[in-house]
Design a protein that fits this description.
By secondary structure, this protein is of the alpha+beta class. The chain is built from 6 helices and 8 strands; from the N terminus they run H-E-H-E-H-E-E-H-H-H-E-E-E-E. The protein is globular and about 75 Å long.
Amino acid sequence: MITVENRRQKAEDRRQNRFMEISLMAKIAVDVVLLPSEEMADKAIKANKELLKKCADKIVLDKERCLPHISLAMGCIDERDIADIETILQTTAKQSSLGQLSVIGIHTGTNSAGEKVSVLQIEKTEALQSLHEEVMRRLAPYFSYDVRADMIFSPPKASESTLAWIKSYPEKSSFEKFSPHITIGYGEINDYSFPIEFAVSKLALCHLGNHCTCRKILASVKFENRI
């Protein structure tokens, strides 16, 4: 026979289980990105394959597990906030007018580990800068930068240079220091003609992998390229 006390105990057990589920929800490292058109993604993957002929395969771009992308904001979030962030991205995409973007060159820099990394530089238009700043402001209440290796999509294990990049993103890569680009891999490549114009297809929230790659889409919304 089920007594009142039994019902109370079961209700309390459910509350405790729910509390434990929430408590155990992980924090993860994420990137809010623009995903380029199919044609532009193909160009980035082709450039990556050229780099892979002579450099380590730390970044191997494809359309499913390591997506070519333009980062707009980066940080760590609670997994339970993904739905709220998706709603923010939907609103942001509807309110934004981006138009065509343009690759204006290749830049090869050096990361904190002393390794050369090449990117396709994107022209920083007023609309693109505005979108970056809007995303940073709207997601500030959800982001933290206390990143740990277990927050990164794995395998492979996150390198120290990956963690350093995420930790320093607000100071070194945002607002006036925002530098839009598509990372194409380690090493140097120069045999490209510019400019290359392209459209974006989606605004997305991705789980970050090693080398700040986009390994898994957590939420996305179609981006209307209004001019």
